[in-house]
Amino acid sequence: MDLNYSQICLNLLKNLSEKQKEVITRRFGLNQSGSENRKETLESIGRIFGITRERVRQIEKDCFLRLKPEIKKYQKIFRYLNEYFKKNN
Q1: Do 24 and 13 touch, CB atoms closer than 8 A?
Q2: Whole-angstrom Cα distance, residue 74 to residue 80?
Q3: What is the pLDDT of residue 23?
Q4: pTM given for the model
Q5: How far apart are CA 81 and CA 3, in angstroms?
Q6: Reduced to 3 states, what is the DSSP secondary structure of residue 15?
Q7: Which residues contact 28 (CB under 8 A, 6 or more apart)?
């Protein structure tokens, strides 16, 4: 199975606002190129936007609720990855 992780991430985030995209990409290190996967804390993201870490957490939670229908489209890929990782430790 040929997987383009960058394209999957872009497709999942396409319907989010710019602020929501920024929060999710920073929180999970999706905006990093190369092998560096630098995840940021709620607090560090909050400082960038001038909001509290609790507000960042709320934005993150809202994003997941909005992404839930989109994620269903990729269930086959997620199952494949799950089986692959189980098989290959």
Answers
A1: yes
A2: 10
A3: 95
A4: 0.72
A5: 10
A6: coil
A7: 39
Q: Which two tokens stand for residue 56?
A: 């960042």
Rounded distance between C-alpha atoms, residue 19 and residue 46, angstroms: 11
Asked if 21 contacts 13 with a C-beta cutoff of 8 angstroms, the reply is yes
| CA 73/CA 19 separation, integer angstroms | 24
- Average pLDDT per run of 10 along the chain, which is 89 residues long? 69 90 90 68 97 97 90 81 85
The span from the CA of 27 to the CA of 67, in Å, is 15
Q: Hey, what are 80's tokens?
A: 């494949």
Q: Which amino acid is at 4?
A: N
Q: Which residue's structure tokens are 């269903």? A: 72
